[in-house]
Each structure stands twice: as C-alpha cells, then as structure tokens.
Write a structure and sequence with these properties.
By secondary structure, the protein is an alpha/beta fold. It has 14 helices and eight strands.
Length: 368
C-alpha cells in the first residue's frame, strides 16, 4: 500500500515538510460550548506551529450517563472556528452518519478512534461511507495491543480509495497499574511503520499519559522515534473540562511544550555526502558481530535445554520446575542491575528464552 505524504494534506502550503516541521494538532478533548471552543482555539491558533485544530463532537464513553459530546451542533461551532482562525479542523467519526455530517460542515480531516478501530464491522461501514470522497483520515490504534487489527482498519479505509492517511498511536490498555493511562508499547507503533513505511505516524501523548505532566516527555520520545506529528488535547481551563480534564493543557503550556521539543532534522544521506557516516557504519558492524555471537550463544544454550529435556524424560521428571524458574527470574535481573542494565528488559528476554525452552522440551518429550 502506498500513502500520500502529509504535505499533500495542505494544498495552501505544498512545500511543507514534516522532517523540519512536524504536524501539530491541538484542541479540546470535547467541544462543550461555542465560547469554550472558540476561545480555546483562537488562543491555540496564535501559535504558527499548530496546523490543525481538533475537538470531539461525539464522545463514546465506557459507561452511559457521562458526557457523550454535544452532537452535530458542535460541528457548527467547529466550522465557525475554522472561519475565524483560518486553520484546518478535525474531529472523530464513529459511524457513517458522522462522516456525512462532518463533511457537510467542511471538516478537513477525519479521525477514527480506538473504540471504533477495534470493531471490523464498524470500520467497514465507515470505509463504505468514504468511497468517492477525497479527505485525509487518521486511524488510531485499537484499545487492545493488536497490530493486525490496527492494520486491518487502515487497509479497509485505504481500500475505499483513501490514500491521504496517517496512523495515530494513542497507547494500549494493559493489565495492572502503570504510570500511563494507556501503555505506550512503542514497539507496536514501530511495527506498523515497518510494515507500512509510507504511512505517516503520529502520536497522541495526551491519551498515552493521561496526566498533563507526562505530555512533554512523551512528545519528545515520539520526536526522537521520528514520528511525523502530535495530537495534544488543549483547553482554556483544563481543570474545568467536561471530559479528560487531567490530560489537557492550556494553550500557553502547549506553546511551551512545542517550543521545548527537539526536532532531529539530520538524515543519513546528508552524513554520507559529508563523509561523516563511517563511524555509524563501524558501530553497526560491531553490533552485527555481537548479535551473531548472541545467536550462537542461544544455539549453545538451547542445545543444553535439549539435554535437560532428555534427562527429565529418562528420570520421569515434569518439564516445568518451579524452583528453577524462580531462581532464573531472581538472578538474571540481579545480574543486570550489577551491570547497570535495565532489569525489566533482561526479565523480558529471559521470559522469551524460558518459553522457548519449555516448547523445545515439550516437543522432545512427545518425540519419544
């Protein structure tokens, strides 16, 4: 699949390039009143770095009887904002009627939320309503960490004839307590980018963090990972917001965040032309050598695993040994800490190694 670059979304500025100036989208979580929306967006619009203003019109909530958006009347307010500021506008759509109303009110960019992307039936209905329409569409990741489901939603919209698309990483639900509202799981967003290299990748630090103090570090992380833009929830009075108050920032704080961001504009091609890429290639060659040694060590380790499996079979021992499991998962992170390596990383690696060891021993037992 091929996707149009973000610059094609901005016909009035065809030379705009995300390598130098990422796409910044900002606005309140929800349109609450005409005054709230207009005042917030006018303050945001003073910042030339923000190209698109956002507001939720329909707000699907986990439980009923919470604020679920003002409905299509809010589209009239959003259109007034567009006329007053000259900025592009975007809102979430969750069904064909939303698409129809949004386009009728000159919404420039549509986004599809996590709760919709999780349902292929919903995605197909939205895709069908977009056939024959030339409008950019942003697809958020589904709530659950499922790359195939995210890919499927993107594919459905693309097959409807939409090639002005972007993926929006807003984090994933996870079991247990973390400091984030939605666990970033950066590797899943990187996997989407690897599978669809021409698809622009944006980040929603507001929904990942859930707290306004996390928005800047998450935004910088996204920039460091070469994301092409950010969507940041912004409200004139965040603590008074009718939805997601804790994750919204003021327009003034938004400006501070965007000004503070370090945008890394260097590229390998420029370094190669200047003859400065030899050191990078040398470091990569060293990594390749070490990686091969790591794989060879895996082979040696798994050969010992096979011998252990044979020993257990011959002596009628169960494959899974709890005491051994506990020793491995206590000692390896401790080794990591003494060597100043992230113990969580080492634990995750050895969890995979242990799973593979169990698989090998189970299959060998079945062979006899």
């Amino acid at each position: 699949m091929e996707f149009a670059p973000l610059s094609s979304w901005f016909p009035n500025n065809p030379n705009w390039n995300t390598a130098d100036h990422p796409l910044f989208i900002a606005g309140p979580c929800s349109a609450e009143t005409p005054e709230q929306l207009m005042e917030t967006c006018q303050e945001i619009a003073k910042n030339d770095k923000v190209q698109v203003l956002r507001a939720g019109i329909w707000k699907p909530r986990t439980r009923p009887n919470n604020f679920e958006g003002v409905g299509k009347i809010g589209l009239e307010w959003l259109l007034d904002v567009k006329k007053a500021t000259g900025k592009l506008i975007t809102t979430e759509v969750a069904k064909p009627e939303h698409v129809e109303e949004a386009l009728k009110h000159e919404v420039d960019i549509l986004w599809i939320g996590a709760r919709s992307v999780v349902n292929p039936f919903t995605m197909q209905e939205i895709a069908d309503s977009l056939k024959g329409v030339d409008v950019p569409v942003i697809v958020k990741n589904p709530i659950n960490p499922d790359v195939a489901l995210w890919m499927g939603g993107i594919e459905r919209i693309h097959q409807a004839g939409i090639n002005k698309m972007a993926a929006l990483h807003r984090g994933f639900s996870s079991y247990g307590n973390t400091k984030y509202r939605n666990e970033p799981m950066w590797q899943l967003a990187i996997e989407i980018k690897s599978k669809l290299p021409t698809l622009p990748l944006l980040c929603d630090p507001s929904h990942i963090g859930g707290k306004r103090e996390l928005i800047y570090p998450l935004s910088q992380k996204a920039m460091d990972l070469n994301y092409e833009g950010l969507m940041i929830e912004t409200h004139r009075s965040p603590d008074e917001a009718w939805s997601d108050a804790s994750q919204q920032v003021t327009p003034q704080r938004l400006a501070e965040i965007l000004d503070k961001l370090v945008i890394r504009t260097g590229n390998l091609e420029t370094l190669e032309k200047a003859g400065l890429s030899d050191k990078l290639q040398d470091l990569r060659n060293q990594i390749d050598k070490i990686d091969r040694e790591v794989v060879e060590n895996f082979v040696a380790r798994l050969e010992l695993v096979k011998q252990i499996g044979d020993y257990k079979r011959e002596n009628n021992l169960p494959i899974f040994q709890l005491d051994r499991w506990q020793k491995v998962f206590e000692s390896r992170p401790e080794w990591a800490e003494t060597m100043e390596i992230n113990p969580d990383f080492v634990s995750a690696v050895f969890k995979l190694i242990h799973d593979e060891s169990i698989r090998i021993q189970t299959e060998r037992k079945e062979d006899f």
